[in-house]
Amino acid sequence: MDFKSEIQRGIPTELPPKKERSSAVSHAPNRKQILYKEEKQLAIRNALRYFKAHWHAVLAPEFAEELQTYGRIYMYRFQPSYDMHARAISDYPAQTAHAAAIMLMIQNNLDPAVAQHPQELITYGGNGAVFQNWAQYLLTMQYLSEMTDEQTLHIYSGHPMGLFPSSKEAPRVVVTNGMMIPNYSKQDDWEKYNALGVTQYGQMTAGSYMYIGPQGIVHGTAITVMNAFRKVLNADENPNGKIFLTAGLGGMSGAQPKAGNIAGCITICAEVNPLAAKKRHEQGWVDELIDDLDVLVTRTKEATSKNEIVSLAFIGNVVDVWEKFYAEELFIHLGSDQTSLHNPWAGGYYPVGLTFEESNEMINQDPDAFKTKVQESLRRHAEAINLHTARGTYFFDYGNAFLLEASRAGADVMAANEIDFKYPSYVQDILGPMCFDYGFGPFRWVCSSGKIEDLQKTDAIALCVLKEIKKKAPAEIQQQLSDNIKWISEAEQNNLVVGSKARILYADAEGRAKIALAFNEAIENGELSAPLILGRDHHDVSGTDSPYRETSNIYDGSKFTADMAIHNVIGDSFRGATWVSIHNGGGVGWGEVTNGGFGMVLDGSKDAARKLKNMLFYDVNNGIARRSWARNKEAMFALKREMERTKTLKITFPTLVADKLLEDLF
Length: 666
Ligand SMILES: NC(=O)c1ccc[n+]([C@@H]2O[C@H](COP(=O)([O-])OP(=O)(O)OC[C@H]3O[C@@H](n4cnc5c(N)ncnc54)[C@H](O)[C@@H]3O)[C@@H](O)[C@H]2O)c1
Prior knowledge:
Number of strands: 17
Radius of gyration: 24 Å
Largest sheet: 9 strands, mixed
Shape: globular
Bound molecules: nicotinamide-adenine-dinucleotide
Helix content: 40-55%
Strand content: 5-15%
Structural class: alpha/beta
């Protein structure tokens, strides 16, 4: 059966043969057994509702076995027969190009070259799912292939509820992931309700189909590492030969060595999973693989003495590196961590002292003992970091819930006031004040033709627009614009593309709208050969309320509210987004964050031009308004500037209060 027919068929009409799991790809760790007998029966009943009754006798024991073995029902048998990767938009069977664009994005998120555990439909972050099972994938693709511009597909945590009549102005797809009644957002609630097949952890760009491989994160990571070095070095120094020590070579964390090379330092990145380390090495994202601590020390000393720019992957536990480097008196300029501590008990963080295999076995066999090991390891991890920071290392939390989980484990990471952490998050110190408050965030686009020439043209257009903007930009954002101009000028030679032909570029509201408009014109006049798909990471100015990450530099007490993210998704949906999504739990963990995003197809039409202006403006300025109301001075500056430019924008401004007045009150 050809590709198009297989998509249009949805769930096969004949029962396909049973499929074994592939040993060529990485698999999600077996999830813990959390369901009681009756709940397991409910999980099977839930899974079987996708299929004809006369298949149930075959599928029920098979799904029961998956549930017993892996802790989830993935329905491996129903994986499609075609290769999974993004194709050119014209290859998809569809009534509307907008639906075809979404299919392309879904397939990219599941491409084995892109996805972390492709057969479990996990794109990144250990548990960031596109769908819960293969039936949901098949049905969604079928719905997309038949939908018109007057219908909207509603997706509940991977489950396509179906097509509802709507209008051309409405989004084609509305996605929710993991939205829970607030009291049911503890980590075990995800285990339970995901095992039952009624919710999923969509992370940020996994369940919203906007993941573009580690490139998506390299730019933000490069900005962070460059600015962290600017903080610790004198103006006449550069990062060459200076050490950035961190961990994780997974979906997002795999960007760190590349970002370190761009920033010009020595990156040492520990990774316990040899497959993950090798994958990044093969893709050229990290320069050298080392699996022996002594060899690592020798190589690091050589690199520091020669002022090298190099990235070294250490296959092993990061705690061992922190401890060893202390003993060897190796000075670490920057330290961070990107293990998946948003998911600490199910394979996000591997405790020191256990091998990778021992940990995976314990997660499944003895989850309580594993939890104890993780907490012991976190205490040791923090202790080693504290020793280094006492020597002058600048350590920052990379938004992976490291400090949060370490504090919960009783590690020495609290500040003297016992409320704050000892160390800042990268958003508090860097991305918040320098980027988000001014509206700069991870704007991105995908060339739906799949052609590299289109990507090259978009790079050139974006560069031209940024240079124009920079000429008249105020001093406050000159540095950001320079960094972004450098990024887009070097993007191609940095060889960042994995999967679809995509590009990320930090830009503010003005930049995003002007670049998008120029793209739309280039499509209209044939300079670009096919539509473009715009989007962004949820890790942005307005889309995400996350008190330990995106909104960690909000100090008016509102960082534990989620109004901004909800307004954003609703606001984007009626201003022209092609699809919108809102998620519980991404990055820092289930229950710890509400985040949303959009996708927008540019087809060169007047409608697209109108929609992009309207939606991109709101998508950025919503967050600036909230940040300004929280009295962030950079956001107040950006908002005043925008209100001068846009007369229809009228935002409530905060009045600042003299400290002295308050001191005398209580
Ligand atoms: N890159 C960014 O800009 C960014 C921004 C915010 C948050 N984060 C957070 O970073 C974390 C990582 O994301 P990801 O997508 O790369 O997750 P991932 O699960 O794909 O990768 C994490 C990697 O860490 C490894 N690991 C776990 N414990 C280890 C240990 N003790 N020593 C060495 N390696 C260990 C795992 O084997 C895994 O490969 C997430 O919590 C994410 O939310 C990243």
